[in-house]
Amino acid sequence: MMRAAPMITVHHLENSRSQRVLWLLEELRLPYEVKRYARDKTTSLAPSELLAVHPLGKSPVITDGKVTVAETGAIVEYLVEKAGDALRPTPGSPEHRRYTYWLHFAEGSAMPPLVMALVFSRIKKAPMPFFARPIAKAIADKVLDGFIKPDLKRQLAFMESELVSRPWFAGRAFTAADVMMSFPIEAASSRGALKSNFPNLSGFLERIHERPAYKRALDRGGPYALLG
How many CB atoms sit inside 10 A of residue 126's CB? Predict the structure, then answer.
């Protein structure tokens, strides 16, 4: 009697990057199961249970039989290969070069200023002695206004310009790079960074939100609200 192939398990932390993994699996039509984890109510961080899955105790992470894969980009590459190179342009083509660039840009360049903006915004609201609050606020505002916000604005303008002549980041066709890019763009939108100044990025969000696989992933993953 043949054993059934092990099913991919997504260790899914609520309101996190792992939502992209569910979406990609839906796009690729790969069977999977979801194991949900709630954030710590005090710190909003991942729970300690994830340490049993991966030494860093973070999400996203998937298990596929005896294989454990962490980091969204690595998971995306693993799943795309597993699905027979679906949602990946032909190697050597201009589309493939753009695909590779945006696949890594999402976490390597786009997310750091968004995370830093979140951290310094929280510093201004953090509990502290009353005499320290003006100092903390002044430092946070200086970093935000002098470095983080200009960097974020420059990056968004760059992303916006890349979608002037094509609907998707790699070219005319939707790819896994668009799945990767969805999180930083949604994060920027949720914090009011897009407003009316970036119509191409706003249009990108509208297109991905209408994809059936995106909607199915929301049904599987549960309510999705980015932390702000």
Answer: 10
Side by side, the strands of the sheet bearing 32-37 are 32-37, 8-13, 61-64, 67-70
* pLDDT higher than threshold 60 for residue 2: no
Residue 61 DSSP label? E
Q: Look at residues 59, 46, 58 and name the one whose alpha carbon lies nearest to residue 19.
A: 59
Which pLDDT tens digit goes with each residue over 138-196? 888 788 889 889 999 999 999 999 999 999 999 999 999 999 999 999 999 988 888 87
Question: Which helix (H) or strand (E) is 210 found in, with range?
Answer: none
Contact 111, 183 (CB under 8 A): yes
- Sorted by sequence, the CB contacts under 8 Å of residue 138 that are 6+ apart come out as none
Q: What's the token pair of residue 67?
A: 């294989």
Name residue 70's beta-bridge partners: 61
Bridge-partner residues for 10, per DSSP? 34, 62
Q: Which two tokens stand for residue 124?
A: 């201004």
